[in-house]
C-alpha cells in the first residue's frame, strides 16, 4: 500500500473520519467492527499483534451503538470505534495477562480507568494487543503469546512495549489503540512501525495502575495512524482522576480543535544523541538527511549541545524502583516465575539503597533544570526516536549500538528515556525511511507542560512531511507480507489455562 492509496476497506479510514461518518449515519458501527475483525483474521497471523479478543461482546455493543446513532442520541467522542487495549491495562471480562505466565488465566472484573474512559466515550473494546513480559523491554515478545513482528518485515521486531498496538495500527487492524511509556514504550514501537506515538506530560492522562503514584516516569498515552487520531484518543482520556495523584483538570475537548502551528515562526533545535546516547552511523546519517530536508520550514534550526548529567544512572534507579514495587511479591514467592527482563530489573533494584534512591530523585531534578537552561532559546527539540533499525525479533535486545556493547537490556533506549527524565511531552512522527527502507521515527520534544503546543506543531509537521517523498509516512506492503521464520509464537512454552483450555497464540476470545 502506498502512502497515497485510497482506502479500500472501512478499516483503513482514519479514526477521525470513521467517527464523523458514524455520526452522520453514513456507516454502521456493525459494518466497521466486521471490517476490523476480517482484517485481524487475515493479517494478524503475519504479525501476532492482537492477542485476546472479545468479538461477540463487541458485536453486541456495535449493534447498540448503531441503534443509538439511528435514534439521534448524544454520541461520545469514540462512539462505535473498535479499540485495541495494550495488555498491561486490565479489561473487565477480557483476558489480561501482562505477557506473564503468572497471569495467563487472569480475567479482571473491572476496567482500569483508562479503559473505562475509552468505553464511556463510546469506544468498543474488541481486543488486547501484545506486550513484552510485564512491559519489560522494547522487543514485544513473551512466553504467553509469543512475539510481535514488524508490519514491514515480520522477521524483525515491532519495538515495545506497545509493539502490538503499533503493529495493529500500521496494518489498520483497529482504528484506536492504547499505549504506555516509561523509557520509550510508546515512542519506540510507533517509530519502528511507522505510526504516531505521544508521550504526554505526567498526569495529563491518568495512569491509575501505577503503583508509585507520585513518580512521573511512567505514563499512559495515545497512539494513532495520524496526529489527529492521536488527539481524538487524548481528548477522550485526559483529565483529573483521584487514582493518579499527578493528574490535573484540563479542557480535554480542546485537543480536538488544535490549529496547526505556523512552522515558520518556530525556533527548532536538533541533536543526534543528547550528548550521551549511542546511535548507529546509518541512523545518524538518516537523521541528518531528514533535518536537511525540513530545516527550511522553521524560523531557525540549529544543533544543540547537551550536558545533562548522569541520565543513565538516574534512569537505572528510577526504573528499578518501579519494578521492585510491581514484582516484589512474585519474586519473593518464586524468582523463576519472572522472565529474565523483569527479574533483572527487580534484582538491580533490590541491591540499591535509600541513598541511591535519594540521589536519583535529586539528579532527575537537576537534569530537568539543565534541560531548561540548554533549551531556553528553542520551541522544539528534534532527535531520532531509536538508535538502530528494527532488528530480528529473535534477538532479545540490541547488544551493540555503534559498535559499543550496551550495559543492559534497555540501555539502547536512551534516546527516549533521556526525554522521559525531563518530564517534557514528546511525540514520535513517521518521517520517511532509513537506509534499509524501514520506518524512521522523528522524536519531537515540546516545552514543559506544553502538550497542546507540541501537538499543534506535530499537526503542521505531519502535513508538511506528506508533501515530501523523503519525509512522508511509509506504509506496509500487504502483498509482501510473509510469515516470520521461526514462527512468532515459537517462544510460547506455558502449559494450558487452569480450566484445561489450550492457550492459542492466535486471538483467543474470553468474555
What is shown here, in short?
This protein is α/β, with parallel strands linked by helices. Helices cover 33% and strands 15% of the residues.
Helix content class? 25-40%
Which spans of ≥5 residues are poorly predicted at pLDDT below 50? 494-511
Major sheet description: 12 strands, mixed
Distance between the termini: 34 Å
| Number of E strands | 18
Under the CATH scheme, the architecture is: Alpha-Beta Complex
**Rg result:** 21 Å
Mean pLDDT: 94
> Can you tell me the CATH topology?
Amidase signature (AS) enzymes
What is the approximate shape?
globular
Query: CATH homologous superfamily?
Result: Amidase signature (AS) domain
- β-strand percent reads 5-15%
- Integer count of domains: 1
Name of the CATH first level: Alpha Beta
How do the strands of the widest beta sheet line up side by side?
A: 12-11-13-17-16-9-10-8-2-3-1-18
Tell me the structural class: alpha/beta
Which secondary structure elements does this structure contain, and how are they paired or packed?
Elements (H helix, E strand, L loop, with lengths): L14 H9 L5 H19 L2 E4 L1 H16 L11 E5 L26 H8 L3 E6 L11 E2 L3 E2 L1 E2 L2 E5 L5 H8 L5 E6 L5 H7 L2 E4 L19 E6 L2 H11 L29 E4 L10 H14 L5 E4 L7 H23 L6 H11 L3 H21 L5 E5 L15 E2 L2 E2 L8 H9 L3 E8 L5 E7 L5 H15 L42 E2 L2
Parallel strand pairs: 1-18, 2-3, 2-8, 11-12, 11-13
Antiparallel strand pairs: 1-3, 4-5, 6-7, 8-10, 9-10, 9-16, 13-17, 14-15, 16-17
Helix pairs in contact: 2-3, 5-6, 9-10, 9-11, 9-12
Amino acid at each position: 500500500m502506498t502512502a497515497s492509496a485510497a482506502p479500500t476497506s472501512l478499516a483503513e479510514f482514519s479514526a477521525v473520519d470513521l467517527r464523523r461518518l458514524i455520526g452522520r449515519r453514513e456507516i454502521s458501527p456493525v459494518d466497521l467492527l466486521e471490517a476490523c475483525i476480517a482484517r485481524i483474521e487475515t493479517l494478524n497471523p503475519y504479525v501476532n499483534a492482537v492477542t485476546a479478543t472479545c468479538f461477540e461482546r463487541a458485536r453486541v455493543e456495535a449493534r447498540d451503538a448503531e441503534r443509538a446513532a439511528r435514534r439521534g442520541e448524544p454520541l461520545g467522542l469514540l462512539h462505535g470505534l473498535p479499540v485495541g487495549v495494550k495488555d498491561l491495562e486490565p479489561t473487565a471480562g477480557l483476558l489480561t495477562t501482562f505477557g506473564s505466565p503468572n497471569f495467563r488465566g487472569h480475567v479482571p472484573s473491572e476496567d482500569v480507568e483508562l479503559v473505562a474512559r475509552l468505553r464511556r466515550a463510546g469506544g468498543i473494546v474488541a481486543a488486547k494487543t501484545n506486550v513484552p513480559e510485564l512491559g519489560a523491554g522494547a522487543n514485544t515478545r513473551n512466553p504467553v503469546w509469543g512475539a510481535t513482528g514488524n508490519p514491514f518485515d515480520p522477521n524483525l521486531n515491532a519495538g515495545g512495549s506497545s509493539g502490538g498496538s503499533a503493529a495493529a495500527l500500521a496494518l489498520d487492524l483497529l482504528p484506536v489503540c492504547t499505549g504506555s511509556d516509561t523509557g520509550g514504550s510508546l515512542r519506540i514501537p510507533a517509530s519502528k512501525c511507522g505510526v504516531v506515538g505521544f508521550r504526554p506530560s505526567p498526569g495529563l492522562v491518568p495512569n491509575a495502575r501505577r503503583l508509585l503514584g507520585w513518580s512521573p516516569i511512567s505514563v499512559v498515552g495515545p497512539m494513532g495512524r495520524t496526529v489527529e487520531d492521536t488527539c481524538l484518543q487524548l481528548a477522550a482520556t485526559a483529565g483529573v482522576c483521584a487514582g493518579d495523584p499527578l493528574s490535573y483538570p484540563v479542557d480535554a475537548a480542546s485537543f480536538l480543535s488544535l490549529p496547526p502551528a505556523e512552522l515558520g515562526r518556530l525556533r527548532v533545535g536538533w541533536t543526534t544523541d543528547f550528548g550521551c546516547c549511542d546511535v548507529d552511523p546509518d541512523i545518524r546519517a538518516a537523521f541528518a538527511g531528514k533535518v536537511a530536508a525540513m530545516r527550511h520550514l522553521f524560523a531557525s534550526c540549529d544543533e544543540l549541545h547537551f550536558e545533562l548529567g548522569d541520565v543513565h544512572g538516574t534512569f537505572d534507579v528510577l526504573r528499578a524502583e518501579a519494578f521492585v514495587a510491581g514484582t516484589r511479591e512474585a519474586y519473593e514467592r518464586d524468582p523463576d516465575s519472572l522472565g529474565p527482563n523483569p527479574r533483572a530489573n527487580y534484582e538491580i533494584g533490590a541491591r540499591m539503597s535509600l541513598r541511591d534512591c535519594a540521589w536519583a530523585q535529586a539528579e532527575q531534578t537537576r537534569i530537568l533544570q539543565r534541560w531548561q537552561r540548554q533549551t531556553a532559546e528553542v520551541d522544539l527539540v528534534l532527535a531520532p526516536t531509536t538508535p538502530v533499525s528494527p532488528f530480528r525479533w529473535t534477538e532479545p535486545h540490541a547488544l551493540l549500538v555503534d559498535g559499543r556493547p550496551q550495559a543492559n537490556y534497555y540501555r539502547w533506549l536512551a534516546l527516549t528515556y533521556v526525554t522521559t527524565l525531563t518530564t517534557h511531552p514528546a511525540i514520535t512522527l513517521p518521517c520517511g525511511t532509513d537506509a534499509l527502507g524501514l520506518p524512521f521515527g522523528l522524536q519531537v520534544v515540546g516545552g514543559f507542560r506544553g502538550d497542546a503546543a507540541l501537538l499543534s506543531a506535530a499537526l503542521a509537521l505531519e502535513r508538511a512531511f506528506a508533501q515530501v517523498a523523503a519525509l512522508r509516512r511509509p506504509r506496509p506492503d500487504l502483498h509482501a507480507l510473509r510469515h516470520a521464520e521461526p514462527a512468532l509464537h515459537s517462544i510460547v512454552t506455558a502449559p494450558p489455562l487452569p480450566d484445561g483450555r489450550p492457550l492459542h497464540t492466535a486471538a483467543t476470545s474470553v468474555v
